[in-house]
User: What shape does this take?
Amino acid sequence: MRKYPRRLYEVGKTPVQSRSMNHSCYLSNIQTVREELREDVWSELRESAIGVIVKLKELSYIWSAKVVHYFLANQLAIESSHEIWSLIDDSMPLRFSLYEFGEITGLNCDPFDKHDVWDVDHQEFWLEMNVPTSDGPTLLELQAIFPICRNWPREKRVMIGLLCLLSIGIFGISSNSRIPLHCAKRVMDIAAFQRYPWGRIGFSGLVDSIKVLTYEAKKSYTLHGCVHALLT
Assistant: This one.
């Protein structure tokens, strides 16, 4: 019989889902993007480098915290900080790594290009959005723009839509948390945006949030990143 690493929790002692699982990758927020920014923007977002988030919304699938919790609660104790292994039925363990994440989502998971020296002057657009120029925007700030941006040029509405998708579907952060500035600015250059490995961002945020989880001490726990890849 093949031996695997020990379980994080002994059989019969895995934490039950008495704790609330939280995440911020709400597909309902993506529907609001569609309604507010209109169909011409929605179709362009669908074809973008992170268009899988739009397509996921269009699938209308149902999130199951119970299934995800079961996967997390049956993890094996492995040394790698970039993989998750889970033994579901005492037979073959399931691996979740950057490879599986890329296969599931289709997002670009290539290594970061250290030679990709790039920048853009973002200040005018940031001021137009009423966002501090020293930071990336929050989802709340982006949503506040919806009523006033309906008559803006399509290119600007697309940039706002991409920022919303980054906050909701890639970083999976709370609505008052800021997108890192160096990532947010890429929406202003479509080529720079399209070539960036957003899959690595979404995967790292997700796995990092899982690796620091404790299930017993707190009343809830929170996942970040592209959490829907755990179910798809």
